[in-house]
Write a structure and sequence with these properties.
The complex is a heterodimer of chains A (308) and B (340). Chain A is α/β, with parallel strands linked by helices and 308 residues long. Chain A has helices spanning 40-47, 69-75, 91-101, 106-119, 135-146, 165-180, 192-198, 216-221, 236-245, 266-279, 294-307; strands at 2-11, 14-24, 29-34, 55-60, 63-64, 76-79, 153-157, 184-188, 201-206, 209-215, 227-232, 249-254, 258-263, 284-289. Chain A contains eleven helices and 14 strands. The longest helix of chain B is centred in the middle third of the chain and has 34 residues, at 177-210. Chain B is globular and about 85 Å long. The chains are: A alpha/beta (308), B mainly alpha (340).
Chain lengths: 308, 340
């Protein structure tokens, strides 16, 4: 549904995108993960036809964003990270305004606005002025605006930023509802725990390039050098000193009844570590790979990027 | 073509409705209308007071004088008020972060710009209609045909259309409303007062050099002042004079420029001959001798309005045609491997 090839964009001396390749399948909720300035918003703005790349190609629903921006706008709904509202309009007038600009008029527009307000749970606020809405309500209203022309693809740049936990949860439910309606969603957020729960696919972007892409499980699995946790019946400090003596083991930490470590050679190294500890006379009750979270994986990648 | 028409239509429909709604709410529009009418009323009252201090007798040309003063003041006031209506139109959208959202709709950038412009024009028409009662005072004294009122209204309308388009353009070019407003007013002051002033200086130097009054240079006709001076009933300059720069300027403009100046045909032809000689000596073109200042002003204003609106539409368009062409050319030049 969304494809980019070799997308490049430079702002002065800063290379925002350095040949970004992205593929988002139809019906997916694709989480775009990256640090501030990694190129997430730039990619979204290019896909939304609000900006041209310096080089490279991008397609949304099979339509070239550079050659046919007007056609792309018909299939894309974009919600920017920072957006404004017209303070002097009521909620109903605000949606009606965008409906008119999208070529929807009369009873159809009124019905559509009612449905969208119902969807984002703002029906009772129809006659209120937009400036009187809370931040969460304004975010939901902006999402309703994004949906006004029934786009196939939604580009949501930090839709949950600045929201309290309840509003975030409501936004998450709303997005799930939208995928059930068949929308393809490209979403960026810094709240990675929620992204892991919400998204079907994720892409990690650093330095203007996708460095890891796939389903959440695939991305986590692809994380190299996972941590291992060894549970001991007694004396975890002693076991830690045995592990420290092994050259291939590092990043050792000691808990109440366990030792956590990383091995350069993956599962084989962990087996060697287990043999060494058992051989030294310590009683091991369990050895397991620590399941890393999306956040840990991302932080690790970001650190590697800084080192590089 | 159909897409162009649809984009234009949607922009006009959506934006005009929203602009009218926004302008009918809040205190700003009310304050502007009140200030505008107060300024006009004070101008009329001040002039009448000044005349009454000179004596009890009402001079026969008082109506014409009042009308002339009112017309010049009215057009000047409109030239100063209208940019305020548009100089924040686009930069305000940008500051509010709503411009991107407008550009994502099916309305074209030209449709959005035209919608903004027409929305402000409607408000200006409202101001024009509201100022008609001020002109009614003139009819207490008589001497002014309704056609002159119509012509002044036309000059005022053209001024308003042009200056609102100019404000819109500068609002599209500058990101901050404060900066765009400042630049707009600088440009307006240069256009309204600067050009006639420089023109007057040149006329004076020509009079000094050749002994006859020169003509206002063509560039000065970009100001609405010569245009409005050329559509008011003239022959009244004998009543003017004495110290006041604006009065003096109007006097000079009326005396030397207006096609309606009550000169005899012979004296007019003699004047044309003298001007031709001056033009030949100074190397100035002759084309504007045959055109009344208001005609030249309308042509300049029409072109300026058209250019301003098209330029503003290009400035707000997120995908510039030339830029898109460059990207496509770069992509064509890329090695095939890079695109697969």
């Amino acid at each position: 549904m969304i494809h980019t090839r070799g997308l490049k964009k430079r702002y002065g001396k800063t290379q925002a995108l350095a040949g970004l390749n992205l593929n988002v399948e139809k019906g997916a909720i694709f989480g775009f993960i990256g640090q501030n300035g990694a190129g997430k918003s730039t990619t979204m703005r290019i896909l939304a036809t609000l900006m041209l790349p310096d080089e490279g190609e991008a397609e949304v629903a099979g339509i070239d964003v550079i050659k046919h921006p007007e056609a792309v706008r018909r299939v894309v709904g974009y919600m920017p990270d920072f957006f404004g509202v017209y303070d002097d309009l009521t909620v109903g007038e605000y949606l009606q305004f965008y409906a008119t600009l999208s070529g929807i008029k009369g009873d159809k527009a009124t019905r559509l606005c009612d449905d969208l307000l119902e969807l984002v749970d703002l029906s009772r606020k129809r006659e209120d002025f937009v400036e009187g809405l809370s931040r969460g309500m304004q975010q939901r209203l902006c999402l309703a605006r994004t949906l006004i022309h029934d786009p196939q693809v939604l580009l949501l740049d930090e839709p949950a930023s600045g929201l309290d936990p309840v509003a975030r949860s409501e936004m998450r439910d709303l997005l799930k509802e939208l995928t059930r309606m068949g929308k393809t969603i490209l979403i960026s957020s810094h709240i990675l725990t929620e992204m892991a729960e919400l998204c079907t696919h994720v892409g990690m972007i650093t330095g203007g390039q996708i460095v890891r892409e796939g389903t959440v499980a695939e991305v986590l699995w692809a994380s190299e050098n996972p941590a291992w946790r060894m549970r001991l019946l007694t004396d975890p400090e002693g076991a830690a000193s045995v592990l420290a003596a092994l050259g291939s083991v590092g990043d050792i930490s000691v808990g109440e009844n366990y030792v956590q470590f990383r091995c350069d050679s993956g599962a084989e190294g962990a087996a060697d570590a287990l043999a060494a500890v058992v051989g030294a006379g310590y009683k091991v009750s369990r050895l397991a790979e620590v399941e890393s979270s999306l956040e840990e994986t991302f932080v690790k990648l970001a650190r590697e990027e800084v080192k590089a | 073509m159909k897409r162009f028409y649809t984009g234009l239509k949607l922009g006009l429909q959506g934006i005009i409705g929203k602009e009218m709604r926004s302008r009918s709410r809040g205190w700003r529009s009310v304050a502007m209308l009140t200030g505008y009418l107060l300024a006009l009323a004070l101008g009329v009252a001040g002039f009448l007071n000044m005349r009454s201090n000179l004596g009890d007798a009402i001079p026969p040309m008082l109506g014409v004088q009042l009308f002339t003063i009112l017309a010049v003041g009215f057009v000047t006031l409109l030239a100063l008020v209208t940019p305020a209506l548009t100089s924040g139109s686009i930069s305000g959208e940008r500051e509010r972060k709503t411009l991107d959202l407008l550009m994502l709709t099916q309305a074209s950038p030209l449709g959005v710009i035209l919608g903004k412009w027409v929305g402000s024009v409607f408000y200006i028409l409202y101001l024009l209609a509201a100022s008609l009662p001020a002109f009614a005072v003139v009819y207490l004294f008589g001497g002014v045909s309704p056609k002159y009122v119509g012509m002044v209204m036309l000059v005022a309308a053209v001024t308003a259309l042009t200056y609102s388009a100019l404000g819109l353009l500068l609002s599209a070019l500058f990101k901050r409303t404060g900066v765009s407003s400042l630049i707009t007013y600088l440009v307006v002051f240069v256009l309204v007062f600067g050009l006639p002033f420089v023109g007057m200086m040149r006329m004076s130097s020509e009079q000094y050099n050749y002994g006859v009054p020169g003509r206002l240079p063509a560039f000065a006709n970009a100001s609405p002042l010569p245009a409005v001076a050329s559509v008011v009933p003239t022959g009244t300059n004998q009543y003017y004079g004495g110290g006041n720069f604006l009065m003096e300027m109007i006097n000079r403009v009326l005396g030397s420029m207006s096609p309606a100046t009550p000169m005899s045909v012979t004296s007019s032809m003699m004047r044309v001959q003298v001007i031709r000689q001056i033009n030949q000596q100074t190397g100035q073109p002759e084309f504007d001798q045959v055109l009344a200042p208001w005609v030249v002003y309308f042509v300049i204003s029409g072109v300026a309005t058209l250019v301003s609106i098209l330029w503003a539409a290009l400035a707000v368009s997120p995908v510039k045609p030339l830029q898109a062409w460059r990207v496509r050319r770069r992509n064509r030049r890329r090695p095939a491997a890079a695109t697969t």
